[in-house]
């Protein structure tokens, strides 16, 4: 953020973050690139798939914590690869054990291998169980405002509707629904999935989203570290634009300069 504009921090489950960009750890060439891209993004929250990530369980494999130290970043374990509420709950409990009681998680329960679209029935069931078990649940969901409202009612600390399919890079396909979710929510709303370009990250923030979570848009760029910096600035610019308030759309042209007092030839 620029020094002369003040903004409230992003608040999630009692935690405060200056950055509104959350970044994933998958799909990079190696751990060094992962660490460099995450640092360039300016993020404070790093998400990782519990089922696919080594946090020290395998002493012979690269350890994510070597490039994403918990003293610098807030870790956000996620349930990527889970297709049932039971599997998602089990995965979150495993993460809590691995991270010494850490209870902030990103819940995602997928419907199929082809679309990776959320199974909202299983998601709702998993969210209720996890919240009753003391977890702070940030939840990946569809862009259905009714489902988003129910997830908040259950106690989710952030609602994360998809912009488009995971990893597709198609951007925000239904901005109207995202705006409806934002208007009704009293918890943070973050676009999760589908962002492919910096302009799309800015669009999410201009809609009024509280943040953006992305992985593929950075990791699959030709220069991931450079793209991470671009995404950082895009999220900041989009947030500033939202707070500033865009000009109203007009039906026709309107001169930029006033006509009163002009010199007539």
Would you mind describing this structure in some detail?
The protein has 8 helices and 10 strands. The protein is of the alpha/beta class. It is globular and about 80 Å long. The termini are far apart. The model has no long low-confidence stretch (mean pLDDT 90).
Q: What low-confidence regions span 5 or more consecutive residues with pLDDT below 50?
A: none
What's the helix count? 8
**In what order do the strands lie side by side in the largest sheet?**
5-4-3-10-9
Which secondary-structure class do the elements indicate? alpha/beta
How big is the Rg? 20 Å
Note the gap between the termini: 47 Å
Number of strands: 10
What is the N-to-C order of secondary-structure elements (H for helix, E for strand)? EEEHEEHEHEHEHEHEHH
* Helix content estimate: 25-40%
* Average pLDDT rating: 90
Q: Please summarize the sheet with the most strands.
A: 5 strands, parallel
Indicate the overall shape.
globular
Strand content: 15-25%
Q: What layout of secondary structure does this protein have?
A:
Blueprint: E1 10-12, E2 15-17, E3 21-24, H1 31-41, E4 45-49, E5 74-78, H2 85-98, E6 104-107, H3 120-132, E7 136-141, H4 145-154, E8 158-161, H5 175-184, E9 190-192, H6 198-206, E10 211-214, H7 216-219, H8 224-244
Parallel strand pairs: 3-4, 3-10, 4-5, 6-7, 7-8, 9-10
Antiparallel strand pairs: 1-2
